[in-house]
């Protein structure tokens, strides 16, 4: 089953949005496969966002991600990479549709609460980076009530 890497950023943790965000993925029918709170080292944040290292906002982005603990997760489900991005909403909360996490819970691009992998390839890279120990293998007994 397809997997993605989801991270609740430091603002989401500080604002007490962890339960709300997890709940949205759970209620959709996705399966939580890995979960941990992490105080991210600068070099690790730089590695996670390596593709953006040339961007003018890179330094600020790294400062933001290391400004407090994050909640790192692996979620699984059919088409979860694309659907997860839809649940999260557009990068800039000013453009995120109401009903999405960023559309409902955030205002500024530099405090947009959550990260989600943008492709199956980056999902597998990010899962390997954040969860080298592996994730839980399980499937809900409700599976036949979620999938036909
Ligand atoms: P996303 O998080 O939607 O995948 P991204 O990978 O392009 O977006 O960028 C990673 C993060 O960097 C994003 O969540 C917020 C920040 N960011 C992106 N574009 C930005 C910009 N133009 N100005 C400031 N921060 C930006
Ligand atoms: Mg991205």
From TrEMBL:
<dbReference type="GO" id="GO:0006228">
    <property type="term" value="P:UTP biosynthetic process"/>
</dbReference>
<feature type="active site" description="Pros-phosphohistidine intermediate">
    <location>
        <position position="115"/>
    </location>
</feature>
<feature type="domain" description="Nucleoside diphosphate kinase-like">
    <location>
        <begin position="1"/>
        <end position="137"/>
    </location>
</feature>
<dbReference type="GO" id="GO:0004550">
    <property type="term" value="F:nucleoside diphosphate kinase activity"/>
</dbReference>
<dbReference type="GO" id="GO:0006183">
    <property type="term" value="P:GTP biosynthetic process"/>
</dbReference>
<dbReference type="InterPro" id="IPR001564">
    <property type="entry name" value="Nucleoside_diP_kinase"/>
</dbReference>
<dbReference type="InterPro" id="IPR023005">
    <property type="entry name" value="Nucleoside_diP_kinase_AS"/>
</dbReference>
<dbReference type="InterPro" id="IPR034907">
    <property type="entry name" value="NDK-like_dom"/>
</dbReference>
<keyword id="KW-0808">Transferase</keyword>
<feature type="binding site">
    <location>
        <position position="9"/>
    </location>
    <ligand>
        <name>ATP</name>
    </ligand>
</feature>
<keyword id="KW-0418">Kinase</keyword>
<keyword id="KW-0067">ATP-binding</keyword>
<feature type="binding site">
    <location>
        <position position="91"/>
    </location>
    <ligand>
        <name>ATP</name>
    </ligand>
</feature>
<feature type="binding site">
    <location>
        <position position="102"/>
    </location>
    <ligand>
        <name>ATP</name>
    </ligand>
</feature>
<protein>
    <recommendedName>
        <fullName>Nucleoside diphosphate kinase</fullName>
        <ecNumber>2.7.4.6</ecNumber>
    </recommendedName>
</protein>
<feature type="binding site">
    <location>
        <position position="85"/>
    </location>
    <ligand>
        <name>ATP</name>
    </ligand>
</feature>
<dbReference type="Pfam" id="PF00334">
    <property type="entry name" value="NDK"/>
</dbReference>
<dbReference type="GO" id="GO:0006241">
    <property type="term" value="P:CTP biosynthetic process"/>
</dbReference>
<dbReference type="GO" id="GO:0005524">
    <property type="term" value="F:ATP binding"/>
</dbReference>
<dbReference type="InterPro" id="IPR036850">
    <property type="entry name" value="NDK-like_dom_sf"/>
</dbReference>
<feature type="binding site">
    <location>
        <position position="112"/>
    </location>
    <ligand>
        <name>ATP</name>
    </ligand>
</feature>
<feature type="binding site">
    <location>
        <position position="57"/>
    </location>
    <ligand>
        <name>ATP</name>
    </ligand>
</feature>
<keyword id="KW-0547">Nucleotide-binding</keyword>
<comment type="similarity">
    <text>Belongs to the NDK family.</text>
</comment>
